[in-house]
Amino acid sequence: MSLHHPQTMTSESTASEAIPAATIIIYRDCPQGGEPQVLMTVRSRNMTFASGMAVFPGGRVDDADFELAKQVPPSMRGDLTLDEVGHQIAAVRETLEETGLALGLKGEIDADKAVASRTMLHETKTLAPVLKAFDWALDLDQIVPFARWYPKNEKLSRVYDTRFYLANLGTGDVEVSTDQAENTRLFWVSAKGALEMAEQGEIKLIFPTRRNLERLALFASFAEARAQAEAIPVKTIVPQIDTSGAKPMLTIMQDAGYPVTAELLETVARG
To answer: The dihedral of CA 228, 60, 78, 168: what is its sign?
Structure first.
């Protein structure tokens, strides 16, 4: 799939058809010491959106995710809306499906059960029967809201309204494997390391992923990332085209925690 430079605006009807999505940035301690690492996946070239791009695990929110959200008791939801709970459930489901990691869950969880639950999830396509079969419960306290990107002003093959979350594995001794359907490679890398790989042409990054990696590169630990995420309320980031300078720039708001808020439009890679 070719990449689009967002030089034209979508109609209001197209913008209103945004697909809800959830993406999770999974931290782990580097086994060799040094900067913490995050898990990235390279999307299959057969995918319609962001094919061949390095992104964080995640995907669209399904109706079943919202249905499961309704089953979460209000006492466990706290001040989260049902819509937000549905997005967080999607992040948990997509993580298990794409990587084999059981995050945002509690109960008796070990490597064998994680493998078995992933196999079941591939069959059921929904998380609720998996939770019941393994006697697990949601533990959404593990999921930290980090960002929300909604490129509704851009002409893209698909418009996703994506919420980004943080989660922490702690130990680096965890096995992950691709699902082969949506991604072809999973790898752990520091945020700075991922940006270096992109500069060297080893991976390709779409605009939101690059901006998020630059933000993540500010932090020396998951604790620092979580502290900033909790200190800055999540704002919906809608990139804008700025034509006031010599060359058009794609820009984002300057008060959402991102150190880089503009890029030359001609260099931008999108879905």
So the answer is: negative
pLDDT, tens only, 187-200: 999 999 999 999 99
- Model pLDDT for residues 134-146, shown as the tens digit of each residue: 999 999 999 999 9
3-state class (DSSP) for residue 27: strand
What angle in degrees, to the nearest 10, is found between the helix axes of 82-99 and 63-70? 120
pTM of structure: 0.87
In Å, how far are 24, 121, 196, 251, 269 from 208, measured between CA atoms?
Answer: 13, 28, 16, 11, 9
Report the 3 state secondary structure along 33-89: CCCCEEEEEEECCCCCCCCCCEECCEEECCHHHHHHHHCCCHHHHCCCCHHHHHHHH
The DSSP result for 163-192, as a single string, is EEEEEE--SS-------SSSEEEEEEE-HH
Say which DSSP state 209 is in.
Answer: H
Alpha carbon of 95 to those of 177, 193, 203, 240: distances in Å? Answer: 11, 22, 21, 30
